[in-house]
């Protein structure tokens, strides 16, 4: 049988750091504040709007619970982590023709970078089919349209993963795909390497129980999807990848219909 795999490419960047190239890149474990889920005060269904909310409504109706967390550095132990088990994987020495200018133009991203991502995922996951359906460029500069997200979350739930399949594929193809293994994987890369600010934190899937996940209505202008917020629970193990370089990629699995690993980040 053919394994059908849904994949998402999501790209991140940070604003140029004030540090000059001769500064040492921070390495090793750090302690940082992560923002976890705090439910609405009225116990209503949590939601957030992807774009501007309707008049009189807040962009989201839930808040954050800040917790100090020790975050380990995977630098030097990259091969110890497996996407099927931990829901993330580190890939090094990736050859790319996409440069910073490529990511200034969506058409160029799709023409140059999408084929590279497809090849990478075919190689690293063993998938039989790849569908790239979206990309996001995050910038930390003031007023940026898509700034780094500072709340712990997972981009997809089981419900929204099925919605994604049905949204992007014709009905017959979607029905066939859902009979097989479906995965949604983000590919994260820096555009201003090496990363010195806003490194991405991600958790070992094995250490975050299902009870920590909270479905959030993700409201688009024309439809409602679903993401997952995450509550702080005992035993969570958090990681980052210090000083990510331009030839390095993080694979972040948001959904796996077969093995279930998913990565809060």
Question: What key attributes describe this structure?
Answer:
globular; four-stranded mixed sheet; disordered N terminus; 4 helices; 265 residues; alpha/beta; 16% helix; single chain; 27% strand; 15 strands
Structure overview:
The chain is α/β, with parallel strands linked by helices. Helices cover 16% and strands 27% of the residues. It has four helices and 15 strands. It has helices at residues 83-86, 106-125, 158-168, 171-177; strands at residues 5-7, 11-12, 30-38, 47-49, 63-73, 88-91, 130-132, 137-138, 153-154, 183-188, 202-203, 213-219, 224-230, 238-240, 249-256. The strands form five sheets. Strands 3-5-14-11 form a four-stranded mixed sheet, with no helix packed on it. The two termini are 33 Å apart.
Describe this structure in a few short sentences:
By secondary structure, the protein is an alpha/beta fold. It is 16% helix and 27% strand. The protein has helices at 83-86, 106-125, 158-168, 171-177, and strands at 5-7, 11-12, 30-38, 47-49, 63-73, 88-91, 130-132, 137-138, 153-154, 183-188, 202-203, 213-219, 224-230, 238-240, 249-256.
**SSE order, as H and E?**
EEEEEHEHEEEHHEEEEEE
How much strand content do the residues show? 25-35%
Query: Class by helix and strand content?
Result: alpha/beta
Q: What does the radius of gyration come to?
A: 18 Å
Proportion of helical residues = 10-25%
Total DSSP helices: 4
Which term fits the overall shape? globular
- Average pLDDT taken over every residue: 90
């Amino acid at each position: 049988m053919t394994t059908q795999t849904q994949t998402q490419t999501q790209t991140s960047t940070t604003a140029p750091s004030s540090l000059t190239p001769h500064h040492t890149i921070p390495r090793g474990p750090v302690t940082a504040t992560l923002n976890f889920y705090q439910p609405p005060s009225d116990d209503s269904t949590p939601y957030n709007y992807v774009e501007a909310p309707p008049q009189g409504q807040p962009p989201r109706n839930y808040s954050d619970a800040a917790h100090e967390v020790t975050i380990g550095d995977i630098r030097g132990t990259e091969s110890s982590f497996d996407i099927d088990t931990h829901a993330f994987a580190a890939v090094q020495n990736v050859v790319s023709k996409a440069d910073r200018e490529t990511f200034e133009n969506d058409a160029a991203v799709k023409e140059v970078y999408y084929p590279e991502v497809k090849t990478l995922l075919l190689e690293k996951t063993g998938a039989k089919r790849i569908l790239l359906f979206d990309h996001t460029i995050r910038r930390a500069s003031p007023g940026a349209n898509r700034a780094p997200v500072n709340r712990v979350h997972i981009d997809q739930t089981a419900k929204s993963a099925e919605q994604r399949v049905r949204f992007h594929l014709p009905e017959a193809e979607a029905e066939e795909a859902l009979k097989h293994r479906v995965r949604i994987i983000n590919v994260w890369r820096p555009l201003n390497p090496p990363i010195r600010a806003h490194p991405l934190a991600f958790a070992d899937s094995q250490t975050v129980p299902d009870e920590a996940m909270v479905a959030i209505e993700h409201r688009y202008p024309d439809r409602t999807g679903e993401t997952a917020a995450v509550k702080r629970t005992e035993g969570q193990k958090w990681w980052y990848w210090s000083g990510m370089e331009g030839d390095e990629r993080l694979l972040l699995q948001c959904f796996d219909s077969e093995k279930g690993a998913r990565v809060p980040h």
